[in-house]
Specification:
- The chain is an alpha+beta fold and about 525 residues long.
- The protein has 12 helices and 28 strands.
- The strands form 8 sheets. A 7-stranded mixed beta sheet has the order 3-14-15-21-18-17-16, with helices on both faces.
- Helix 2 crosses helix 9.
- Bound molecules: glycyl-adenosine-5'-phosphate (GAP).
- The site of glycyl-adenosine-5'-phosphate has 19 residues, from strand 15, strand 18, strand 21 and helix 9.
- One of its GO terms (molecular function) is glycine-tRNA ligase activity.
Length: about 525
């Protein structure tokens, strides 16, 4: 099992670079320097993400009798998010570096130990300039840092207040230097040692104004980009219940965008400001809540295995008391071994009657369920498996990425990059490759095969370069099957004199083995393998 802190930054760098060069994921607005925390999916990334969402929907909605889908609006009513607690409490503690002005998540700063140098101000004798302002710097003597580092940092800090920019920071004199020994402090920026501001709560929601209200302070004109898809499910639960005449237990599933003004977007798409969620709110009788939470955990773990994330790379964190939301009697985090550490993919939370209860209180409308058999009225409890779509795409990419050594004994060095996506999520299912591009009969036959498959799956036609190079290009983007059209396809005898007309060579991405399949059987053969 990997250590929680085990990371492989080099692998992550290669993955990010491959994502860009092959058209999986690009930085949003890269042309203009990038929009921090936002990402655009390129042609292959879009297919991969669509495939993931399709498998999730098929497994959770189409193949189940007890779950219905919905697609709520992205703009959320302020009253919905006030009732849910997001307006008052959806925040992260934030602090600012006094020197660089970088904004940091206070709860993500690693504790540090060292000597803190404190100053009361600085002056410049020649010009008569002086300032009284406390400032501190932490240095780590075990990392060869000494008082000179502290003094240099402090001078840079005070130099920000100089109106005469001709005065170099090193010309300043520091005032009132004292020191203290600090153990496990989180008050200093690990990047430069500068003192941080006290943590403040920062609401993560993006607020906007609806309509053309002339009053800038009209509270009814305020709307939010939803911070999770879940709330529209809770507020539509009664409509779904009444219009679909379902009985408990039943779920409502939704895939869609969510927005959070994250203080520190990081680790590629892992923590973004705009992302997609795949959420289910599963409504049940109170006595079934805990049992169903356990069942959902298993169901969700199997899902990840099915799409190509092995169980050995998944970790289940049973979130301890005190770290769970106060209304949740049980919460599991499903975590994955990303190259940047073990991190959350999905939460499976037993939320009790909290959400429906809050919306009932705030709206003044009953959200009770009437059980026809027992004649009871009650607010259903909820189990919520809430997955991140972009995080799962990232896990699929990290899991698929492999560099295979193909160097033969005594031979020259050879390796191939191969994305070992499960065929169900692979962006391109099959590549159609005529052996030669200057033989019209081969090209015509290959186009025929392309037209045969295109209505059923995403295929790619490629006639440029030697066939071996074309295979490698497909390996790099994870195409599970390459279909070569050669002279035997056109009727030339096979190596043992056999008739191979109207058959093609199918080359398997992972084993690189090849087999001959007749064109008439090709479509069902592929359909069986790409679901
Ligand atoms: N309705 C419950 C809810 O939203 P959450 O743990 O805040 O719970 C659920 O989010 C999932 O959404 C997370 O497990 C993660 O996969 C994804 N997610 C949350 N914040 C994200 C972000 N900033 N960037 C990408 N994915 C995010």
């Amino acid at each position: 099992m990997a250590e929680r802190e085990n990371t492989d930054p080099q692998k992550m760098e290669k993955i990010v670079s491959l994502c860009k060069s092959k058209g999986f994921i690009y930085q949003s607005a890269e042309l203009y320097g990038g929009l921090n925390g936002c990402w655009d999916y390129g042609p292959l990334g879009t297919e991969l993400k669509r495939n993931l969402k399709e498998v999730w929907w098929r497994k959770n909605v189409q193949e189940r009798d007890d779950i219905l889908g919905m697609d709520g609006s992205i703009l959320n009513h302020h009253a919905v998010l006030t009732a849910s607690g997001h307006v008052g409490g959806f925040s992260d503690p934030m602090c600012d570096c006094l020197l660089s002005k970088a904004r940091l998540r206070a709860d993500q700063i690693d504790p540090q130990t060292g000597t803190a140098y404190h100053y009361t101000g600085a002056s410049h004798a020649e010009s008569g300039w002086s300032i009284e302002k406390p400032f501190s710097v932490l240095i780590d003597p075990t990392a060869n840092q000494d008082e000179n580092k502290a003094r240099k940092t402090a001078k840079q800090y005070y130099a920000q207040f100089l109106s005469d920019k001709q005065i170099a920071p090193k010309k300043l004199e520091l005032v009132g230097e004292t020191t203290t020994e600090e153990v496990d402090t989180t008050s200093y920026n690990p990047e430069n040692g500068s003192l941080l501001t006290e943590p403040r709560e920062f609401n993560l929601m993006f607020q906007t104004k609806m309509g053309a209200s002339s009053d800038a302070n009209d509270p009814n004109a305020v709307a939010y980009l939803r911070p999770e898809t879940a709330q529209s499910i809770f507020v539509q639960y009664k409509n779904v219940l009444d219009s679909s005449r379902v009985k408990l237990p039943f779920g409502i599933a939704q895939i869609g965008k969510a927005f959070r003004n994250e203080i520190n977007p990081r680790n590629f798409t892992f923590r973004s400001r705009e992302f997609e969620q795949m959420e289910i709110e599963y409504f049940c009788r109170p006595e079934d809540g805990l049992r169903l939470t356990e069942e959902w955990l298993e169901t969700r773990l199997s899902f990840y295995e099915e799409i190509g994330v092995p169980r050995t790379k998944l970790h289940v964190l049973d979130v301890p008391d005190g770290e769970r939301a106060h209304y949740s009697a049980k919460t599991y985090d499903i975590e994955y071994e990303f190259p940047f550490g073990i991190q959350e993919l999905e939460g499976v939370a037993y939320r009790g009657a909290y959400d429906l209860g809050k919306h009932q209180d705030h709206s003044g409308k009953t959200l009770e369920y009437f059980d026809e058999e027992t004649k009871e009225r009650f607010i259903p409890h909820v189990v919520e498996p809430s997955a991140g779509c972009d995080r799962t795409v990232l896990a699929l990419i990290c899991e698929a990425y492999d560099v295979e050594d193909l160097t033969k004994e005594g031979g020259k060095k050879d390796e191939r990059t191969v994305m070992r996506f499960k065929p169900s999520v692979a962006p391109i299912k099959a590549a159609i490759l005529p052996l030669l591009k200057n033989k019209p009969e081969l090209v015509a036959k290959a186009k025929e095969v392309q037209k045969l498959l295109q209505p059923f799956m995403n295929v790619f036609y490629d006639e440029a370069a030697a066939i071996g190079r074309r295979y490698r290009r497909q390996d790099e983007i994870g195409t599970p099957f390459c279909i070569a059209i050669d002279f035997e396809t056109l009727g030339e005898e096979g190596p043992n004199g056999e008739d191979l007309s109207d058959t093609v060579t199918v080359r398997h991405r992972d084993s690189m083995e090849q087999e001959r399949i007749s064109i008439s059987e090709l479509l069902p053969w592929l359909l069986e393998r790409i679901r």
